[in-house]
Amino acid sequence: MTELSRGAAAARYSAIAIVLHWTIAALIVLQVALSGRMEARTPEAFAVTQFHKSVGITILLLSLARLAWRLTHRPPPEPAALAPWERRLAVAVHWGFYAVMILMPLTGWIMVSTSRFAVPTLLYGAVPWPHLPGLAELAPAAKAMWNEGAEAAHHTIIKGAYVLFGLHVAGALKHHFVDPRTPVLPRMAPGARAGRWWEPRLAAVLLGLGAVTAFGLFYDPPRPAQAAPPPLAPAVETREPGAQAAPAVATPAAAPAPAAAVRWVVQPGSTLGFTTAWSGEPIQGRFDRWTADIVFSPDDLDHSKVTVSIDTASARTGDDQRDASLPAPDWFDTANHPKATFTATRFEKTGEGRFVARGQLSLRGASRPLSLPFRLTIDGDRASVRGVTSLDRTAFGVGQGEWTSTEQIPAKVTVRVDLKARRMSP
Ligand code: HEM
Ligand code: HEM
């Protein structure tokens, strides 16, 4: 062993510090490589952002561990020949990095905790991670302020990190090639020999960073599910007459039903679904909670009336993270508009077993005419109804801000009703 390498071996960071250094460095490079793919409002960008959040929180946890380790363990003594300005610059860069390693994830965490889209964080699609306490509950204006501030900080701090990275790597390389009498690389890359042009550890670092960058540029994280799971068995609240004489059905249609048009009770297994698309990929959704007051007879269309009341917070599209943002003001705004209502008062027969229900749909504070063509089969006191219609989501303000654009999500939403009902005994 030469004098130089023996000295270098003695002045080495501990194994824990070394593993944490290279892991965190690789994850930060990965974050930057991923960050260029998060802007678009596509399912891919959504999935990449979820992955970016997961990796970022991992960096936060590792960095806190590393900081704790650093504060309780002295780093190895620096090469004695290091100039005082070099020593000071190195220390400043190192502490600057600690600030970046903690503030980048923190500002990211603030951003997602105050986002209008209220997308929850599920680390690697599996481990729930809370929003920062106190922020998610703020009033919209205060939330927007925090969000903008955190986003600006996230963007600015990373620029500082680029400068630190430049100085850090330049320092490591200078003391490897230009000034090999003050070796620093062996402190973090065990066994490295200063001055060696073909030092394999440098090649490994370069290859490693390249591989991580390529991974970040091309990795396709799992997308949100494309289809909603099959509807739950009792998809609707049924309203059966109770043993008491209490009125079984709610008020909207409670006016005395004319002789011929009779009441129907919706049966479990009925579904109210919708189909849309995101970046050309179909999304099947459904509402889990809705009720219908049905007074209907094919022979007494004039006195038929149907009112469907939909709990807008029950929309499901098969992806928990995406679904958690649907109640937000930009989509269904369930806090202000908890119910959507379709009231059909005009019915036309268009063929054998075929009808059109005409009425108004009130959704998110807008009311628009809507027609629902449907097929009806009646078998004794059982009826089955299948109807499909479409509506323009933008006419109801479903999708605000950048989502008013129909580039990623079309305006047209197809609505599908599959309803089974039982005639209520008089
Ligand atoms: C974003 C990526 C990186 C970050 C955040 C980072 C961060 C750090 C920090 C905080 C330290 C100080 C260790 C401590 O006292 O706790 C350190 C030391 C060191 N880093 Fe990095 N580093 C990164 C990338 C790199 C790269 C690419 C190289 C190699 C070319 C490198 C080489 C070194 C060396 C040789 C040391 C020891 C310096 C000394 O104490 O004399 N680092 N790094
Ligand atoms: C050390 C960890 C992190 C690094 C290095 C990092 C890096 C970046 C970079 C470079 C950007 C692009 C900024 C720009 O366009 O100028 C970005 C954006 C973003 N990051 Fe991070 N990030 C980290 C942690 C996090 C965490 C933990 C979260 C959330 C929990 C997060 C959420 C976001 C979001 C939502 C954006 C998009 C902001 C936008 O709409 O422009 N980041 N990040």
Gist of the model:
The chain has 426 residues and is an alpha+beta fold.
Structure description:
This protein has 426 residues and is an alpha+beta fold. It folds into two domains: 3-218, no CATH class; 251-423, Lipid/polyisoprenoid-binding, YceI-like (Lipocalin, Beta Barrel), CATH 2.40.128.110. Helices cover 36% and strands 24% of the residues. It has eight helices and 13 strands. The protein has helices spanning 3-10, 15-35, 43-72, 84-113, 140-178, 185-188, 200-218, 320-323, and strands at 121-123, 127-129, 262-266, 271-278, 281-287, 290-296, 305-311, 315-316, 339-351, 354-363, 366-379, 382-392, 412-423. The strands form two sheets. The chain has an eight-stranded antiparallel β-barrel with strand order 3-6-7-9-10-11-12-13. It has a two-stranded antiparallel sheet with strand order 1-2. Strand 6 and strand 7 (305-311) form a beta hairpin. The radius of gyration is 31 Å and the shape is elongated. Mean pLDDT is 87; it is low at 1-9 and 227-259. The structure holds protoporphyrin IX containing FE (HEM) (2 copies). One protoporphyrin IX containing FE (HEM) is lined by residues 28, 31-32, 35, 38, 49, 52-53, 56-57, 59, 104-105, 108-109, 111-112, 121, 151, 154-155, 158.
Topology overview:
Elements: H1 3-10, H2 15-35, H3 43-72, H4 84-113, E1 121-123, E2 127-129, H5 140-178, H6 185-188, H7 200-218, E3 262-266, E4 271-278, E5 281-287, E6 290-296, E7 305-311, E8 315-316, H8 320-323, E9 339-351, E10 354-363, E11 366-379, E12 382-392, E13 412-423
Antiparallel strand pairs: 1-2, 3-6, 3-13, 4-5, 4-13, 5-8, 6-7, 7-9, 9-10, 10-11, 11-12, 12-13
The structure holds protoporphyrin IX containing FE (2 copies).
Residues 17, 21, 24-25, 28, 70, 75, 78, 90, 94, 97-98, 101, 165, 168-169, 172, 184-185, 187-188, 205 line the site of one protoporphyrin IX containing FE.
